[in-house]
Every structure is written in C-alpha cells, then in structure tokens.
Design brief:
Keywords: Repeat. Residues 79-137 form the CBS domain. This is CBS domain-containing protein. It comes from marine metagenome. The structure is a single chain. The model has no long low-confidence stretch (mean pLDDT 89). The chain is of the alpha/beta class and 154 residues long. It has one domain (3-135): CBS-domain (Roll). Helices cover 31% and strands 19% of the residues. The strands form two sheets. Strands 1-2-3-4 form a four-stranded mixed beta sheet. It contains six helices and seven strands; from the N terminus they run αβαββαββαββαα.
Length: 154
Amino acid sequence: MNLKETVRSEKIRRLDLSFYVEVQKGSLAREVIEKMQASNRKCALVVDGIKLVGIFTAHDIRDHAQETDALDHPIELVMTADPETIDGNVYLAKAITFLNQKPYRYLPVLNKEKHIIGTLTHFAILKYISDYFPEAIYNLPPEPDLIATARDGA
C-alpha cells in the first residue's frame, strides 16, 4: 500500500496516541504540572471518573503565568473545559485535514463510548508515516532535485 492509500484507509486509533497524562478533576494545577513534567508530556486530559471534562496544556500554563496563585487553583479553573474531540475511527486523511484547519497541538481521541483513547498530535502522524514509509522519509535530501554541480570547497 502506498502513502496515499494508507492515509485514506488507516484509522487514527492505530497511531501512537500516548502523548498525554490523565488527571482527575479537583487536582491542583501544581500537581498536574508535576505529573506532566515527570512523564515528559505537555498535555493533561482532565477526567471526572472516566468522562473527559477538560484539557490542560502548555498554552494554559502560559495564559495563567501572571497569576501569583494559579498553581494552587484546582485544575478546573485553569484548564480548557469541554475540549473538541475526534473519534478514533476517523481516517488519517480526515484527521490531517481537521488538524490543519484548527489551532490544536493536542486533540483528544475518544471511542464510540466516549472513553479516552489518547491524544492526536502532528508528531504522532509524522511518526506513523515515517515508521511505515521510512524509504520515503529518511533517504531523501531536503530538496531531492537539487544536485551539486561542483564539489564543495573545490
């Protein structure tokens, strides 16, 4: 299967969607940030039980950086509530189009029961493509049609 066929037929639930941490509603912003740092993640999905209620990213940290006591607030006060989500059964091509039209770096992915599968990122898409088509990604120079006419330094 070639790249075009793959992005049209592969569902996003098959990608690595693990670029997040999960935290419970009521956690302090400080605790959430510590968990994100410990896990080397830049996104936290906030849940109430198993239901997604919000998302907290570096963007939210920046928005509240001037508040002196923001770290001691419950996460609900600094997160983005009711984030837009995408279904895990969406095809990769549609997801790429969706991400290109929206300003999201992290997009929660849910199954049909509305349970969290993970977060879709541009990196996850690029990693998937490069893992399955390494010959198309790794072996080409940045400008494949550019050919040196003389040796450099000669």
